[in-house]
Give the backbone structure.
Amino acid sequence: MIAALSFLPFASLVQAAPPADDPAVPLILAAAESLFQTMKARDYPSTWRGLSAKSRETIVTETIEAIRKAGDPPVSRERVRDDFAAGGPLCRQYWEGFLRRFNPDDALEKSRWEMGAVEKDRAEVLITHKGADRPAVLRMFREGKTWKAGLVETFWER
């Protein structure tokens, strides 16, 4: 029993550092903030580059489906991807519609940001809008050496 209790003072040394102490935190927060700043500036190619691969692919799929439902001529996945990357007409139409429902200033100027969990390739940024009881948990993903925002992983999958 004494041997087991003597180990307790060292148990705290085994625990992970608080998320705020993780050296990746400044990069994670900068990537998250950049997403909302590029939306606000209507810099859609930069917004696109700031999204996770899953978010980009989901948006491409949704765009192709919307075109099909509208009865317009079909477009290839590659054409839609290229259009979003270049800030073309499909991209502008998509993001302008998105921004009619979402104001990036709500996140940038009217919310408190805190770091949530940080793992090797995943992290969470807690964004609490003024007056809200609970934060939105923005999921971030390391893809290669860059942190990307999981817009779809955060807001589409509830």
